[in-house]
Amino acid sequence: MEPLLVITNSGAGTAAEENLEQALSVLRASASVEVAETDGPGELDGVLHRAGSRRIVVAGGDGSLHAVVSALYRRNELHGSTLGILPLGTGNDFARHAGIPLEPADAARVVLAGHGRPTDLIVDEVGEVVVNNVHVGAGAQASRRGDRWKKRLGVIGVGKVNLGKLGYPIGAALAAFKPPFLRLHVEVDGVTVNDLDEPALMVAVGNGATVGGGTSLTPAADAADGKVDVMVSRAIGPLARFGYVADLVRRRHTDREDVVYRRGTRVTISGEEFYCSADGEIYGPERSRSWRVEPAAYTLLVPAHA
Fold first, then answer.
1. Distance in angstroms (rounded) separating the CA atoms of residues 62 and 89
2. Taking CA 180 as the corner, what is the angle to CA 177 and CA 183, rounded to the nearest 5 degrees?
3. I need a surface site. Which of 144, 168, 173, 178 has the fewest CB within 10 A?
């Protein structure tokens, strides 16, 4: 087995450290393993510079995976890379989407014996990447508000139970009281799917299916098909919002008349100022952003049966 470089966040909590040790005990039984704790892009870049031929394993959630993939992309080292994931984050949406077990020891066994699956990447017009999902409108507002609760509650955890998972639901509930209705022009592969005369509650562009620890925004998304799934919700009335949220929980929202669901390779959103939440990283306000798919941008280790 080739040597492994496990990259972890130095700010991880006690529960994550315990889970990491479980995974490391499995990895060390079969491979040479170095663990590198990083705190910020500078340290991460230095670790990657010294990685050599070692296989990179990301220990963390979607944010940690985003950071490593983004750094490799900037260094022009992503193409041809094979990455493993130890899902030690709060939501672990992309790992879940890829079929990677959430149990640390089982995830470590996938790193050792899984097969490599070519995996797509979303890239915007300035070269920033999205591994899992980017969304604007109410979803981004929920993420903005939920992020502070995630950080507050994330320090509370015993073993596998971490209250940080409640951050997104709390943010969504707070956002529901005063959601942003945005007049946005949305294009998928040059075709308008929403125009300025149709206020939108939210727009999601998904490489993966879920956000926030299991909320299925783009349920049909497949990170290995060369396309992204685009979901536009026009549920702006009080009753419509309630119905949309109820159907979202039941994964039936894409059947609603006030929801548009499309698939494509290029997406552009423009119009009123909006915030974006990309893999949990929030930025804005923006007036126009565009994204494209880079098919098979890197290889991800997944279970042999996936």
1. 7
2. 150
3. 178
Residues in the chain: 306
> Vertex 187, ends 96 and 260: CA angle to 5°?
60
Dump pLDDT digits (tens) for 94-111: 999 999 999 999 999 999
CA angle 150-134-262, nearest 5°? 135
Contacts of 44 (CB under 8 A, 6+ apart): 7, 38, 67, 68, 71
CB 142 within 8 A of CB 172: yes
Query: Which of 11, 6, 13 shows the shortest CA–CA distance to 160?
Result: 13
Place of tokens 């945005």: 182
Pairing of strands 161-162, 202-206: unpaired
Q: At what angle do helices 167-177 and 138-154 cross, to 10 degrees?
A: 140
Whole-angstrom Cα distance, residue 247 to residue 114? 35
Q: How far is CA 206 from the centre of its chain?
A: 9
User: Two tokens at 300?
Assistant: 């991800």
